[in-house]
Structures are given as structure tokens and as C-alpha cells.
């Protein structure tokens, strides 16, 4: 009888050791997965395009090509079921889509407010850009924001495209990017990464 109990105790101990080993293996695999996720951020590279609804694709194309220097690129035939155009420059695309519903477009085509939705383009010569806007008769609002903590300032130009969507031109590159929390998680384009270091 004692022999059977001894064998059973040994089997139970072996079973517990196996279970403990499985738990350790599971914990180890979980830690490994966690490390991999931290080492391999999302496979995102950059902003690809901004899509804009238009009252007139033709008018918007003229604005973005003449005023902002975008280039019309070929749009795949798969998108021929609706009127639109694809533009590209500065590493970003703008996709124009003919609106079928006036209610979806901004009602105020003249209002400018820096605290409203807008897209922003980095600029290396703010004076030249302001002059270009004046040459095209584009009404704009200018402002300078002082960053006393970093002893620098940011110049901004705000204006609307033909449909009332706001656009900003700035020299925000003057500001150094400092992560508020997720230290080391910011992925910069290589040219921006060199400037930050």
C-alpha cells in the first residue's frame, strides 16, 4: 500500500512540475510577444493623402496646382465611377472628390480660425509664400506665436481653398518635437530625424 502511495505521490509531483514548467513557458512566451510588440511598432510609414470634397474638381485642381504647387497624377480607372482628381507633391497626396451634397461642404467660405480643422504645410520661406498668396488674390490671416520656453517663434498663414477648407502654411519646424509621454515611440521621416538630433 505504501509503495502505491509513494508512486502516486511521485506522479503527482511530476505532474505539478510539468504544470509549473508549462506556466513558466507560457509566461516566457507572453513576455517574448510583449517585447516583440514594443520592438516592432506599427508598420506605418507616413501620411499618404488628404481627401477633399469639392464643389468643382476643376476649380480645386487649379487652386492646388497653381497656388500650392501640386501636380496632377494619374488616377486609377477603378475610381472612374465618380468625378475626382489625384494630386501629389511634397511627399503627400490630395484626393479631390466631386461633392454630391452641398451640405457636406463648409457653409462659410471666408471664415478663418486657427483653432478650426485644417491641413498644414511646412514652409522654408514664409515671406515668399505670403507674396504668392497675394499674387493669386488669396485672402489670408497671418500670425506669429512666440515659444519663450525654447526661445523661438512660429509664423503661420491661414487661408481657405475654393470650398472653404482651411489650409495653413507654417515654419513649425522651428519647434523641437518632444514626446509628452511615449518616449522613443515617435517615428520621423529621415530628413526630420536628422534635424531633431
Automatic annotation (TrEMBL):
Residues 1-39 are annotated as: Disordered. SUPFAM superfamilies: Glyoxalase/Bleomycin resistance protein/Dihydroxybiphenyl dioxygenase. CDD domains: VOC_like. Coiled coil: none annotated. Residues 46-172 form the VOC domain. PANTHER family: EXPRESSED PROTEIN, PTHR46142. This is VOC domain-containing protein.
Amino acid at each position: 500500500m505504501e509503495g502505491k502511495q509513494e508512486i502516486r505521490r511521485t506522479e503527482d509531483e511530476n505532474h505539478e512540475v510539468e504544470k509549473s514548467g508549462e506556466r513558466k513557458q507560457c509566461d516566457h512566451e507572453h513576455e517574448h510577444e510583449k517585447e516583440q510588440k514594443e520592438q516592432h511598432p506599427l508598420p506605418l510609414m507616413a501620411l499618404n493623402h488628404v481627401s477633399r470634397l469639392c464643389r468643382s474638381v476643376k476649380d480645386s485642381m487649379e487652386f492646388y496646382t497653381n497656388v500650392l504647387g501640386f501636380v496632377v497624377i494619374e488616377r486609377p480607372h477603378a475610381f472612374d465611377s465618380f468625378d475626382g482628381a489625384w494630386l501629389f507633391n511634397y511627399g503627400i497626396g490630395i484626393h479631390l472628390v466631386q461633392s454630391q451634397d452641398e451640405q457636406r461642404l463648409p457653409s462659410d467660405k471666408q471664415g478663418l480660425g486657427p483653432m478650426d480643422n485644417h491641413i498644414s504645410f511646412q514652409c522654408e520661406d514664409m515671406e515668399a509664400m505670403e507674396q504668392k498668396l497675394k499674387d493669386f488674390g488669396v485672402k489670408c490671416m497671418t500670425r506669429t506665436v512666440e515659444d519663450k520656453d525654447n526661445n523661438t517663434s512660429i509664423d503661420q498663414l491661414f487661408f481657405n481653398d475654393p470650398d472653404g477648407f482651411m489650409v495653413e502654411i507654417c515654419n513649425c519646424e522651428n519647434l523641437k518635437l518632444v514626446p509628452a509621454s511615449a518616449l522613443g515611440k515617435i517615428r520621423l521621416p529621415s530628413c526630420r530625424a536628422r534635424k531633431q538630433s
